Amino acid sequence: MIAAAAPRLPLQGADDLPLLVRRARLQDARALHSLSLAFVRSGALRARTIDHYLAHAGEFILATGRGRTPVRGCVALSDEGNGAAVLHNFCVARGSQGRGLGAALLRAAFAEARRRSMREVFTATTSGADLFRRYGFAPTARGRAPAAWARALDPARGSQVLSRRL
Protein backbone atom coordinates (compact mmCIF):
# COMPACT_ATOMS: atom_id res chain seq x y z
CA MET A 1 0.00 0.00 0.00
CA ILE A 2 1.38 3.42 -0.97
CA ALA A 3 0.63 6.23 1.44
CA ALA A 4 -0.25 9.53 -0.14
CA ALA A 5 1.45 12.62 1.19
CA ALA A 6 -0.79 14.85 3.23
CA PRO A 7 -1.78 17.90 1.18
CA ARG A 8 0.02 21.06 2.25
CA LEU A 9 -2.29 23.86 3.17
CA PRO A 10 -1.67 27.05 1.21
CA LEU A 11 0.27 29.68 3.07
CA GLN A 12 -2.20 32.15 4.50
CA GLY A 13 -2.13 35.32 6.49
CA ALA A 14 -4.34 36.09 9.48
CA ASP A 15 -6.98 37.37 7.06
CA ASP A 16 -7.11 33.89 5.41
CA LEU A 17 -5.83 35.30 2.12
CA PRO A 18 -2.76 33.71 0.50
CA LEU A 19 0.55 35.22 1.56
CA LEU A 20 2.30 37.56 -0.81
CA VAL A 21 6.09 37.44 -1.25
CA ARG A 22 7.36 40.81 -2.43
CA ARG A 23 10.21 43.30 -2.21
CA ALA A 24 10.02 45.41 0.93
CA ARG A 25 9.30 49.12 0.79
CA LEU A 26 10.48 51.88 3.08
CA GLN A 27 7.20 51.82 4.98
CA ASP A 28 7.88 48.13 5.84
CA ALA A 29 11.03 48.96 7.85
CA ARG A 30 9.30 49.10 11.24
CA ALA A 31 7.53 45.77 10.63
CA LEU A 32 10.82 44.15 9.56
CA HIS A 33 12.51 45.45 12.70
CA SER A 34 9.63 44.23 14.87
CA LEU A 35 9.62 40.73 13.29
CA SER A 36 13.37 40.45 13.83
CA LEU A 37 13.32 41.34 17.54
CA ALA A 38 12.25 37.87 18.73
CA PHE A 39 15.14 36.35 16.77
CA VAL A 40 17.58 38.88 18.21
CA ARG A 41 16.42 37.97 21.73
CA SER A 42 16.92 34.26 21.00
CA GLY A 43 20.43 34.91 19.67
CA ALA A 44 19.58 33.79 16.13
CA LEU A 45 20.03 37.28 14.64
CA ARG A 46 22.36 40.17 15.31
CA ALA A 47 20.71 43.26 16.71
CA ARG A 48 20.11 45.96 14.11
CA THR A 49 18.63 49.39 14.68
CA ILE A 50 15.49 50.65 13.05
CA ASP A 51 17.79 52.96 11.08
CA HIS A 52 19.40 49.88 9.50
CA TYR A 53 16.00 48.67 8.28
CA LEU A 54 15.14 52.13 7.00
CA ALA A 55 18.46 52.40 5.12
CA HIS A 56 18.33 48.87 3.70
CA ALA A 57 14.60 48.26 3.18
CA GLY A 58 15.18 47.77 -0.55
CA GLU A 59 17.40 44.73 0.13
CA PHE A 60 14.57 42.85 1.85
CA ILE A 61 12.09 40.37 0.47
CA LEU A 62 9.14 39.81 2.74
CA ALA A 63 6.04 37.70 3.08
CA THR A 64 2.79 39.23 4.22
CA GLY A 65 -0.92 38.69 3.74
CA ARG A 66 -2.68 40.41 0.89
CA GLY A 67 -4.88 42.23 3.40
CA ARG A 68 -3.71 43.99 6.53
CA THR A 69 -1.79 41.09 8.07
CA PRO A 70 1.64 41.70 9.57
CA VAL A 71 4.91 40.68 8.00
CA ARG A 72 5.29 36.92 8.56
CA GLY A 73 8.84 36.45 7.23
CA CYS A 74 11.75 38.20 5.58
CA VAL A 75 15.22 37.80 4.13
CA ALA A 76 17.69 40.40 2.93
CA LEU A 77 19.78 39.96 -0.22
CA SER A 78 22.77 42.27 -0.47
CA ASP A 79 24.95 42.64 -3.55
CA GLU A 80 28.58 42.31 -2.48
CA GLY A 81 30.06 42.83 -5.97
CA ASN A 82 31.91 40.47 -8.29
CA GLY A 83 28.82 38.28 -8.71
CA ALA A 84 28.53 37.55 -4.97
CA ALA A 85 25.50 38.13 -2.76
CA VAL A 86 24.80 37.66 0.92
CA LEU A 87 21.55 36.50 2.48
CA HIS A 88 20.99 37.81 5.99
CA ASN A 89 18.25 38.60 8.49
CA PHE A 90 16.33 35.50 7.40
CA CYS A 91 13.43 34.92 9.76
CA VAL A 92 9.92 33.52 9.76
CA ALA A 93 7.44 34.34 12.54
CA ARG A 94 6.94 31.47 14.97
CA GLY A 95 3.33 30.84 13.98
CA SER A 96 4.27 30.60 10.29
CA GLN A 97 7.25 28.23 10.55
CA GLY A 98 7.10 24.77 9.00
CA ARG A 99 4.61 25.78 6.33
CA GLY A 100 6.94 26.51 3.41
CA LEU A 101 7.26 30.24 3.97
CA GLY A 102 11.06 30.09 4.42
CA ALA A 103 11.33 28.09 1.20
CA ALA A 104 9.22 30.67 -0.64
CA LEU A 105 11.47 33.46 0.63
CA LEU A 106 14.62 31.57 -0.42
CA ARG A 107 13.22 30.88 -3.91
CA ALA A 108 12.36 34.56 -4.30
CA ALA A 109 15.87 35.56 -3.17
CA PHE A 110 17.47 33.13 -5.64
CA ALA A 111 15.29 34.47 -8.47
CA GLU A 112 16.26 38.05 -7.60
CA ALA A 113 19.95 37.12 -7.40
CA ARG A 114 19.79 35.46 -10.83
CA ARG A 115 17.94 38.46 -12.28
CA ARG A 116 20.79 40.65 -11.03
CA SER A 117 23.44 38.30 -12.50
CA MET A 118 24.77 37.17 -9.15
CA ARG A 119 26.59 33.86 -9.40
CA GLU A 120 26.99 32.81 -5.77
CA VAL A 121 25.06 33.45 -2.56
CA PHE A 122 26.64 33.33 0.91
CA THR A 123 25.03 33.22 4.32
CA ALA A 124 26.02 32.57 7.92
CA THR A 125 23.96 30.75 10.49
CA THR A 126 24.28 29.76 14.11
CA SER A 127 21.45 27.26 13.60
CA GLY A 128 19.19 26.18 10.77
CA ALA A 129 21.93 24.94 8.46
CA ASP A 130 19.67 22.01 7.58
CA LEU A 131 17.19 24.33 5.86
CA PHE A 132 19.96 25.99 3.87
CA ARG A 133 21.46 22.61 2.91
CA ARG A 134 18.08 21.44 1.60
CA TYR A 135 18.24 24.41 -0.78
CA GLY A 136 21.72 23.71 -2.09
CA PHE A 137 23.96 25.55 0.37
CA ALA A 138 27.17 23.89 1.52
CA PRO A 139 29.72 24.84 4.18
CA THR A 140 32.53 27.00 2.87
CA ALA A 141 35.61 28.73 4.25
CA ARG A 142 35.19 32.33 5.42
CA GLY A 143 38.04 33.23 3.09
CA ARG A 144 35.81 32.46 0.07
CA ALA A 145 33.09 34.83 1.25
CA PRO A 146 33.00 38.56 0.46
CA ALA A 147 35.77 40.01 2.64
CA ALA A 148 33.93 42.96 4.23
CA TRP A 149 30.95 40.77 5.15
CA ALA A 150 33.13 37.97 6.53
CA ARG A 151 35.09 40.45 8.68
CA ALA A 152 31.82 41.72 10.17
CA LEU A 153 30.82 38.26 11.44
CA ASP A 154 31.14 38.01 15.21
CA PRO A 155 33.45 35.04 16.00
CA ALA A 156 31.81 34.68 19.44
CA ARG A 157 28.54 33.68 17.74
CA GLY A 158 30.13 30.59 16.14
CA SER A 159 28.46 31.15 12.79
CA GLN A 160 28.84 28.60 10.03
CA VAL A 161 29.46 30.17 6.61
CA LEU A 162 27.57 28.55 3.74
CA SER A 163 27.43 29.21 0.01
CA ARG A 164 25.35 28.22 -2.99
CA ARG A 165 26.18 28.67 -6.64
CA LEU A 166 23.33 29.84 -8.85
Q: What would you say the CATH architecture is?
A: 3-Layer(aba) Sandwich
User: What is the CATH topology descriptor?
Assistant: Aminopeptidase
Which percent range fits the helix content?
A: 25-40%
Tally of strands: 7
CATH superfamily: Gcn5-related N-acetyltransferase (GNAT)
Radius of gyration: 16 Å
Structural class by sheet pairing and helices: alpha+beta
- Number of separate helices: 5
Q: Which spans of ≥5 residues are poorly predicted at pLDDT below 50?
A: 1-10, 12-17
Strand arrangement, major sheet: 1-2-3-4-5-7-6
Notable traits:
single chain, Aminopeptidase, seven-stranded mixed β-sheet, about 170 residues, about 30% helix, alpha+beta, disordered N terminus
Could you characterize the architecture of this molecule?
With 166 residues, the chain is of the alpha+beta class. The chain has a single domain (19-165), classed as Aminopeptidase. Helices cover 29% and strands 27% of the residues. It has five helices and seven strands. Strands 1-2-3-4-5-7-6 form a seven-stranded mixed sheet. Strand 2 and strand 3 (71-81) form a beta hairpin. Helix 1 (29-42) crosses helix 2 (50-56). The chain starts with 18 loop residues before the first strand and ends with a strand. Residues 1-10 and 12-17 have low confidence and may be disordered.
